[in-house]
User: Fold this.
Amino acid sequence: MTSLLDLASIVAIAAGAVFYLAGTVGLLRFPDAYTRLHALTKADNLGMALVVLGLLPQAGGLLAALKLVLVWLLVMLSSAAVSQLIARSARRRDAVQ
Amino acid sequence: MTPVVSLVVALLLLALAVWSVVVRDAFLAVAGFVAYGLLLSLVWVRLFGLDVALTEAAIGGGLTGALLLGAVARLRGTESKAWAERSGIVLRTVAKALALGVTAVLVLCVLALPEPAPTLAPQVAANMDATGVGNPITGVLLAFRSLDTMLEAIVLVIALIGIWSLSPEGVWGGRPGLRHHADPDGVLAYLARLLPPIGIVVGLYVFWAGADHPGGKFQGATILAAMWLLVQMAGLADAPRTDSRWLRAGVVAGPLLFIVVGLLGLWTAGAFLGYPPQWAKPMIIAIEVGLLPTLVLVLALLLNGVPARSGR
Assistant:
């Protein structure tokens, strides 16, 4: 049972790392602020979700697992809000130019 | 595997440090510095210095980064002029020689350190019971070396007075910075309504956990100050008037309480900042609780900056 859970953790965290890698490649390669934000936020949210999912069986307790989920929710909240703010300021700058 | 990860992190850290010194654009340098701070806190985690890691992430990366970003915004107008300047060959040679000299002395000092390094850790571990707290870092900061912590708190207040004294004629005691305006139904206002309740709980938890686990008043105060600043940035509350009585009383309350406890120690335990036996933990908690509001106020006001408008 534990080895099965470990395997699930490895698969989920590895998949999460792939999303992070894809998001970083997008951040470096995409042409403008909007597409970069698109790559970054989508990939980061999913990547973070998968990493947290993978860590849940390893957390060693319900409380620690709940804290991990809370961290994930907070990261989602802040990255969603911040990406909106960056996109808005980028649009304002484009309108000026 | 682990040495490889350590090596990669150390090389990244060095590269980021060099980059944020060498890069000419001030904004990029600050961005590099913030990333450097976050990476450095990872290094502290790897060295099992969780308290230092928390402080580095909150104050080194977060708060200092925000302060530097404010400085960059102020320097924007003169930055291109500063780029055009090129100092004379003599000045550059002297600067290079000085920098190399300081580096050489530092390298020699590190190489000359005795092996094993001198440590007071066994004495701290042997006397931790007397303090009543479980986290040795808190024990050192508030019992064995509490004089340092007291001076730190006083230095912060002096720094704040320094910033306030830069205020232009006629607005001394006014509100710092510009009034922030944001769409009251927008994303920022939404975040500033949703996040502070969670942030306040987390900040107080980090503060309270400091007695027995990594955490403490500085890290907790940074989180609480950040929540206050978020509410200000979203335009939901204005920055406080710097001549308000309660504000100034709050700014000096923590260091004053520290000094009073210190003087009490002179009387009850025979030394400045000494705690009478059995009373160590209540005294430490009193200082921590007294310092927290002061630190929140001072850290937020440091970021608010120079009083700039009368705000009446």
Notes: The interface with chain A takes residues 187-188, 190-191, 194-195, 198 of chain B (CB under 8 Å). Chain B has a mean pLDDT of 87.
